[in-house]
UniProtKB/TrEMBL annotation:
Keyword Membrane recorded: yes
Domain of life where this protein originates: Eukaryota
UniProt keyword annotation of DNA damage present: no
Name of the protein: Peroxisomal biogenesis factor 11
Phylogenetic placement of the source organism: Eukaryota, Fungi, Dikarya, Ascomycota, Pezizomycotina
Coiled-coil ranges (or none): none
InterPro entries: PEX11
GO BP annotations, alphabetical order: peroxisome fission
Localization in the cell: Peroxisome membrane
Annotated Gene Ontology cellular component terms: peroxisomal membrane
Entry keywords, A to Z: Membrane, Peroxisome, Peroxisome biogenesis
Organism whose genome encodes this protein: Aspergillus campestris (strain IBT 28561)
Major subcellular location class: membrane
C-alpha cells in the first residue's frame, strides 16, 4: 500500500473479489436458501466493485508517467537480448495507447473534457474499446517475451552445465536466483493466461460470450499472486 501501484493492485483485487462474491450471492442456488429481505449484501458488493473500478480509473490518470519512465529506461539501458528489447518497446507503445485512450474516455465521461472530439471517433465507448484492444496488445506481446525468456534460460542452463560447477557457494546462489526467476516467469504466465480470454471478450464490441459471473473470479486469479507477493514483501 506504500506505492501507487500497490494501492491500485489492492483496489483491483478487492473489486474483483467483491464482484465474484456478488454473483455467488446472486446465483439461483444461493437465493433459494435466502429470504428476499436478506439479499441486500449482494447489491452492496456490486456497489463496492464499481467503486473500486472507478477508484482505479482515477489512480491510472497518472499512469502515463511510469510508462514514460519504463520506456526511457529501456532506451537508455536496453535489454541485452535484442528480441526482448524490441518486444519491450512495442509493449511500451501499446500501454501508452491503452492509458491515453482510457484517460480520455474517463475524463470525458466525467464531463472534465469535451465529448465532442471523442464523438468524432465513435464516442466514449469506442475509445474504451480501443483502449482494451491496446491493452490486449501488451498481453499478446508478453507471450513472446515469456517464450524468449524461456529460450534464453534454457541456453544459460546448457552453458552452465557444459562449464561445470564453479564452487558450492556460487552454485547455491545460482540455484536461488534460478528459482526466483522461474517463479517470476510462472507468475507472469499465469497472469497472462488469465487475462487473455477476458481481454478477447472485451475487445469484441458484442463480446465473445464470456460469462459475466466469472469475470470477477478470473480477474482475481490474475492478480492474486502478485498482491500476495507484495504483501509478503512488506510483512
Amino acid at each position: 500500500m506504500a506505492s501507487a501501484y500497490g494501492q491500485e493492485r489492492v483496489f483491483a483485487v478487492t473489486g474483483y473479489l467483491s464482484h465474484a462474491l456478488y454473483h455467488l450471492l446472486d446465483s439461483a442456488p444461493w437465493i433459494a436458501l435466502q429470504a428476499p429481505r436478506r439479499r441486500g449484501p449482494a447489491s452492496r458488493l456490486l456497489a463496492l466493485s464499481a467503486l473500486m473500478t472507478e477508484t482505479r480509473y482515477t489512480l491510472r490518470l497518472l499512469g502515463l508517467v511510469p510508462l514514460w519512465t519504463w520506456g526511457s529506461g529501456e532506451l537508455k539501458s536496453p535489454h541485452p537480448d535484442r528480441a526482448i528489447h524490441i518486444l519491450t518497446l512495442l509493449q511500451v507503445v501499446s500501454n501508452v495507447l491503452y492509458q491515453a485512450l482510457e484517460n480520455a474516455g474517463f475524463l470525458a465521461a466525467k464531463g472534465i473534457i469535451s465529448k465532442k472530439f471523442l464523438d468524432r471517433w465513435g464516442g466514449i465507448d469506442k475509445w474504451y474499446l480501443w483502449s482494451t484492444r491496446a491493452w490486449f496488445g501488451h498481453i499478446f506481446l508478453q507471450f513472446f517475451v515469456l517464450w524468449r525468456l524461456r529460450v534464453l534460460r534454457a541456453a544459460r542452463r546448457a552453458a552452465a552445465a557444459a562449464a561445470g560447477a564453479a564452487g558450492g557457494e556460487k552454485k547455491a546462489d545460482d540455484a536461488e536466483s534460478e528459482a526466483a526467476e522461474t517463479r517470476a516467469w510462472t507468475k507472469s504466465l499465469v497472469n497472462n493466461v488469465c487475462w487473455t480470454p477476458l481481454c478477447l471478450h472485451w475487445c469484441a464490441e458484442e463480446g465473445l460470450g464470456f460469462p459475466a459471473s466469472l469475470t470477477g473470479v478470473v480477474s482475481f486469479m490474475a492478480g492474486a499472486w502478485g498482491v500476495f507477493d507484495m504483501w509478503k514483501a512488506t510483512a
